[in-house]
Structures are given as structure tokens and as C-alpha cells.
Specification:
The chain has 9 helices and 5 strands. It has a 5-stranded parallel beta sheet with strand order 2-3-4-1-5, with helices on both faces. Helix 3 runs parallel beside helix 5. One of its GO terms (biological process) is defense response. InterPro entries: Apaf_helical, NB-ARC, P-loop_NTPase. One of its GO terms (molecular function) is ADP binding.
Length: about 190
């Protein structure tokens, strides 16, 4: 599903945004894709970069280089880092996850993405974000929008975490408490599991 879609004409590497509120499961979904054996076999190299609110193009590029070749150039020169990243990625099909991106500055984004576009055909970039503007700016494919869980699914998640079962059958005396907890968690998987 993550490989289907239409890319923009000027982008070599498809960028797939996963969007949703905090605790909805964006990082968990990206981890499931990243760690899947079939996915791993498709790429020459993988890199997972936790970005958060402190978006620094040079730090992110160095982190990608560290993941791809194990070394980091001793420079903060953006142009030299671009060249090194182009060299490293031109022969590799890479899966890059940029987790928890908040920064929606177009100039910074284009500075980061430019060398990544030289990655071998078949490469993919997944971005997790709460910010719709980030998804619109970065995505070359439609954003994968995560929604809150349905009530019955919430009960199931809570039962699995609290009781090690799929539901409250056999523990009906706890179901009323479970239902109150589910209402307070408002469909967020992280809140339910916590």
C-alpha cells in the first residue's frame, strides 16, 4: 500500500506522510513497515531519524550518512554533505523514515530532500507528523491519515493490555470500569495501552 500513488514530476523519491494527532500510532505504523522482513529485503539500506521539533538539516543529513555507511564526515558544510550524501545514495535503494517532523519550512525541506532525490530508483521516504502543513509540503503521495480507533476496537485493545485477552468475556465485573477508561482515552491507542 505504501508504494501505490502518483509522484510529482520533480521528485525522484516518493515521500509518504503519515499524519495524525499525538498517541494515534504514527510511529508504531512506521515501525511496523520499517521492521517488516519483506520490506527490509526490498531495500539496500534503511535509516530511521527521529527529528522532533529541533529540525536541523545538517544533523539530519549526518544521521542519514551514519545510518547508510556508518561514518559521519567531520564537516558542517552543507554543500559537502550534499555531495557525500549523493555519492552514498546513488547506488543504494533506501528506506528513510523521518519520525515526528514538526518543521514546515520549505527552504529547509528542499535543502534536505535535494541529495535524497539521487537515491536509487525504488527508494522511499516515510514521514510521521502531526502537522498537516508538513504533510502537504513534503508528500509526493497522498498522506496516510490515521484516525481514532472505534469504540469496540478500543475495548479490545484495553482488554488485551489489561487482561491478555481479546475482550472482557470471563471478566464481566471489570467491563464497566473498562468502558469508562475507553471513554476517557478518546480512541487513542497510546492512551489505551498506557
Amino acid at each position: 500500500e505504501f508504494g501505490v500513488g502518483k509522484t510529482t514530476s520533480d521528485a525522484e523519491v516518493p515521500v509518504i506522510p503519515i499524519v495524525g494527532m499525538g498517541g494515534i500510532g504514527k510511529t508504531t505504523l512506521a515501525q511496523l513497515v520499517y521492521n517488516d522482513d519483506k520490506v527490509a529485503g526490498f531495500f539496500d539500506s534503511k535509516a530511521w531519524i527521529y527529528v522532533s521539533e529541533d529540525f536541523d538539516v545538517i544533523k539530519v543529513m549526518k544521521a542519514v550518512l551514519q545510518s547508510v555507511n556508518g561514518g559521519v564526515p567531520d564537516t558542517n558544510d552543507l554543500n559537502l554533505l550534499h555531495i557525500k550524501l549523493k555519492e552514498e545514495l546513488s547506488e543504494k535503494k533506501i528506506l528513510l523514515v523521518l519520525d515526528d517532523v514538526w518543521h514546515d519550512n520549505y527552504v529547509d525541506w528542499t535543502s534536505l530532500i535535494r541529495p535524497l532525490e539521487f537515491a536509487k530508483s525504488g527508494s522511499k521516504i516515510i514521514i510521521t507528523t502531526r502537522n498537516q502543513n508538513v504533510a502537504k509540503m513534503t508528500g509526493t503521495l497522498p498522506a496516510y491519515q490515521l484516525k481514532e480507533l472505534a469504540y469496540d476496537d478500543c475495548l479490545s485493545v484495553l482488554a488485551r493490555h489489561a487482561l491478555g485477552r481479546e475482550n472482557f468475556d470471563g471478566h464481566t465485573h471489570l467491563k464497566d470500569i473498562g468502558e469508562e477508561i475507553v471513554k476517557k482515552c478518546k480512541g487513542l491507542p497510546l492512551a489505551l495501552s498506557t
